[in-house]
Amino acid sequence: MEFKENMSKEEFEKAIQGAEDKVRTQLYNDKIKVLESEIAELKPKQKSEKELELEKKEKELVSKERQYKIKDTLAENNLPAELSKFLNVDDDALDELGEELAQILDSHLLNASYKPSNKNNKGDAISKEQFKSMNYMERQKVYESNPELYNKLAN
Fold it and tell me: What is the pLDDT of residues 35-66, one digit of tens each?
């Protein structure tokens, strides 16, 4: 709208509104539109079903490959391969896994194994020569305490 010296209030408001619209349109075209297109480029795109399926299969493959590596490491250290399904380690720690696990299990099994408190090994300490030199009463005591040993030594 052109500028007139004597404008009515309505014409004045229309002129201001028109100028504001020009500025907004120019701003939108110059800056906002460009920024919106950049944002659209940076947003992650929706993956197709094939891409999702491929990613899933790739993860499964990596997981199985890691399980086989763990099984091999356990086998190298004479440990049961069945433990592999309970272990989840990175490839970096895989080398140390076998050795550390072997040490832990060995120490646990040795510490938790049965250790008799009183060792009663008197019966097996008799040799054939000692048995032959025994009198009848001593042989009778051996027979009463350990008949298997008596039969073994008597024959």
Answer: 888 888 888 777 888 989 999 999 999 988 88
Two tokens, residue 22: 């020009």
| Residue partners of 122: CB distance under 8 A and separation at least 6 | 145
> 31, 39 in Cβ contact below 8 A?
no
Please write down the HEC assignment for all residues of the chain: CCCCCCCCHHHHHHHHHHHHHHHHHHHHHHHHHHHHHHHHHHCCCCCCHHHHHHHHHHHHHHHHHHHHHHHHHHHHCCCCHHHHHHCCCCCCCHHHHHHHHHHHHHHHHHHHCCCCCCCCCCHHHCCHHHHHHCCHHHHHHHHHHCHHHHHHHHC
The HSE-up count of residue 117 (CA atoms within 13 Å, CB side) is 0
User: Domain segments of the chain: what residues?
Assistant: 7-43, 49-112, 124-154
Residue 148 contacts residue 137 (beta carbons within 8 Å): no
- The token pair at 11 is 């014409």
Q: How confident is the model at residue 123 (pLDDT cuts 50, 70, 90)?
A: very low
**All residues at 6 or more sequence positions from 80 whose CB lies less than 8 Å from its CB, including other chains:** 74
